[in-house]
Amino acid sequence: MPRRALAVALGLMTVLGALPVVSALIALDAAPLLGCRIDAAAPVPCLWGAVDLGTVLHKMAIAGWFGFTTAPPAMLLLVVWLAVVLAFALRNALARKGYWRV
């Protein structure tokens, strides 16, 4: 398996597994900077210029809860990815010593 494919797979696992948590962290950091608060029950109006960002910040903060469903599969895929990388590394090491035909 090419190294590029393994690197792309690792990148996708990392991004997709962490995206909900990153979204929540951005919302929780942006709200105080905008002078807003985030309530878990309902969106709170947050005017920035002429735009109400309350709903967007609320949805981003609530998306963090999806981290409980995306992080475990991402971690499991990371373990599988590591096993595949180690298997290829072992195969290549054995092939260099002449114990394995590639």
Q: Main sheet, how many strands, which sense, barrel?
A: 2 strands, antiparallel
Mean pLDDT: 88
- Radius of gyration of CA atoms, rounded to a whole number: 21 Å
Total beta strands:
2
Strand content: under 5%
Integer count of domains: 1
Identify low-pLDDT runs.
none
Helix-strand string? HEEHH
Distance between the termini: 12 Å
The share of residues in helices is: over 70%
Which class of secondary structure composition applies to the elements?
mainly alpha
User: Order of strands in the sheet with the most strands?
Assistant: 1-2
Number of helices: 3
Describe it for me?
The chain is mainly alpha-helical. It has one domain. Helices cover 71% and strands 4% of the residues. It contains 3 helices and 2 strands, in the order H-E-E-H-H. It has helices at 3-33, 54-63, 67-97; strands spanning 47-48, 51-52.
Distinctive features:
single chain; mainly alpha; two-stranded antiparallel sheet
Which helices and strands occur, and which strands form pairs?
Blueprint: H1 3-33, E1 47-48, E2 51-52, H2 54-63, H3 67-97
Antiparallel strand pairs: 1-2
